[in-house]
């Protein structure tokens, strides 16, 4: 996704979506210098979004369509849209609109350090204030009021993207009750980095709860991540406390 953030690289991918072209032809399609296009091609290669085949003294490039499955609509150019008449009908397909909660925070650590704060169990524990375990992509934590959080990282793409499924056990809160999917993105900013979470939910009451949950988590991140990233700074672990219960 980071490689696709540049409109130039999106245009390059559209240009070589269904054909192989030498680097010189790709450069000729843009009002940019050849070294600049070479840098963009290098980024796409590092992200495994294109294949490169040496041919004599030239290098030929083609979009890695398997890696770009589902992302073609983000590309620029005449191949961006597929005419409706050419779409094969699939009676087994289905579509639905789902609610999403968006939470964000700006922090003072750089992109790499902020990303590490979500994948390094020791750092995660320090800024969240409670023990966090991460083993083979599965994470778990128990908040100081007793709520048990657990889940799995479906995708970890340093230093920008984590896709997770998670749930919690809390006898005082009846939601979500099933694993939900969240997307956590970390981007660089002028002051450090920015964290944006897109949390999918199934109902409005879940949305309200998730707003509170992610506001709490990201608030702790902002307050503690700088100190948590330095092992020379001692942080106080949050002690267990009784949760306030509401009457039925």
Please, could you describe this protein's structure?
It is a single chain. The protein has 6 helices and 10 strands; from the N terminus they run αβααβββααββββββα. The protein is α+β, with helices and mostly antiparallel strands and 248 residues long. A 7-stranded antiparallel beta sheet has the order 4-10-9-8-7-6-5. Strands 1-3-2 form a 3-stranded antiparallel beta sheet. A hairpin with a 2-residue loop joins strand 2 and strand 3 (58-63). Helix 4 packs across helix 5 (121-128) and helix 5 packs across helix 6. The model is unreliable at 76-81 (pLDDT under 50).
Share of helical residues: 25-40%
Strand order of the largest sheet: 4-10-9-8-7-6-5
Q: Say how many strands there are.
A: 10
Number of contiguous helices: 6
**What do we call the CATH homologous superfamily of the largest domain?**
START domain
Strand content of the residues, in percent?
25-35%
The overall number of domains is 2
Please give the CATH class of the largest domain. Alpha Beta
Rg, Cα atoms, Å: 22 Å
Distance between the termini: 45 Å
Shape descriptor reads: globular
| CATH fold node name of the largest domain | Alpha-D-Glucose-1,6-Bisphosphate, Chain A, domain 4
